[in-house]
């Protein structure tokens, strides 16, 4: 999944420019965006029906997912966080996350639950996987950080429409007109931003 196509430079430029936009948001803007996103999150059927929800800890100017996690906990939903697989390169594990979970930094410096096989849940047993993204377009195409972790995780859902339903989370400023698409890219059926819920 190494990016060597002609679109590589364009994708890298989009990552840089879109990350800069969200990093430039003020604390107040971030707070308002998180509150608006929570309102959508609370009203979406997929979330209301879900018992096991995968979220992630926000970094790099991403929308703050803390209110979403706390909302799930308040309704006794099980929350899971992605953990980089220690042996299977480019893949994710999903570990149960609760207020007392011990967090450790991964190789990218992002906090994740300390690996304990007792806390692992196979991805297909999740109800919803909330996915981070760098940019998205009007067709639901998602541009990630380039590691392919979520594309690999979501490929079974995309190919068979079975298992956990993916929902992208993003600031409105992360929308672009059109993304250069590669064969391995997995488009999302739903993306939530502070201003609206996109569905395809």
From TrEMBL:
Query: What keywords does the record list, in alphabetical order?
Result: ATP-binding, Ligase, Magnesium, Metal-binding, Nucleotide-binding
Q: What is its EC number?
A: 6.3.3.2
InterPro entries per the UniProt record, alphabetical: FTHF_cligase, FTHF_cligase-like_sf, NagB/RpiA_transferase-like
Q: Which SUPFAM superfamilies match?
A: NagB/RpiA/CoA transferase-like
- TM regions (residue ranges): none
Q: What reaction is this protein's catalytic activity?
A: (6S)-5-formyl-5,6,7,8-tetrahydrofolate + ATP = (6R)-5,10-methenyltetrahydrofolate + ADP + phosphate
For this UniProt entry, the molecular function terms from Gene Ontology, in alphabetical order, are: 5-formyltetrahydrofolate cyclo-ligase activity
Cofactor(s) recorded for this entry are:
Mg(2+)
Q: Name the protein family.
A: Belongs to the 5-formyltetrahydrofolate cyclo-ligase family.
PANTHER family, from UniProt?
5-FORMYLTETRAHYDROFOLATE CYCLO-LIGASE (PTHR23407:SF1), ATPASE INHIBITOR/5-FORMYLTETRAHYDROFOLATE CYCLO-LIGASE (PTHR23407)
Recorded protein name is 5-formyltetrahydrofolate cyclo-ligase
Which organism does this sequence originate in? Enterovibrio norvegicus
| Phylogenetic placement of the source organism | Bacteria, Pseudomonadati, Pseudomonadota, Gammaproteobacteria, Vibrionales
């Amino acid at each position: 999944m190494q990016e060597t196509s002609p679109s590589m430079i364009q994708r890298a430029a989009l990552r840089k420019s879109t990350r800069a936009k969200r990093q430039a948001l003020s604390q107040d803007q971030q707070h308002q965006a998180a509150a608006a996103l929570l309102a959508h999150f609370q009203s979406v059927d997929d979330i209301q029906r879900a018992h096991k929800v995968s979220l992630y800890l926000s970094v790099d100017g991403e929308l703050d997912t803390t209110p979403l996690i706390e909302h799930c906990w308040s309704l006794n939903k099980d929350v899971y966080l992605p953990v980089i697989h220690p042996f299977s390169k480019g893949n994710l594990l999903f570990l149960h996350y609760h207020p007392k979970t011990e967090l450790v930094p991964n190789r990218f410096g992002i906090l994740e639950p300390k690996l304990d096989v007792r806390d692992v849940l196979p991805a297909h047993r999740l109800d919803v996987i909330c996915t981070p993204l760098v940019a998205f377009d009007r067709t639901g195409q998602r541009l990630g950080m380039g590691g392919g972790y979520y594309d690999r995780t979501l490929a079974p859902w995309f190919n068979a429409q079975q298992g956990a339903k993916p929902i992208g989370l993003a600031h409105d400023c992360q929308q672009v007109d059109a993304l250069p698409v590669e064969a391995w890219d997995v488009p999302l059926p739903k993306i939530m931003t502070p201003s609206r819920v996109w569905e395809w």
